[in-house]
Amino acid sequence: MDFSLAKEALEIPSAPDVLLLPSDLAPSVKVLSVNEDTEEHKRFICVNPGRLSKGIGGGTFVELYYNEDTEKTKAFIMRI
Question: Does the record carry Repressor as a key word (predicted)?
Answer without folding.
Answer: no
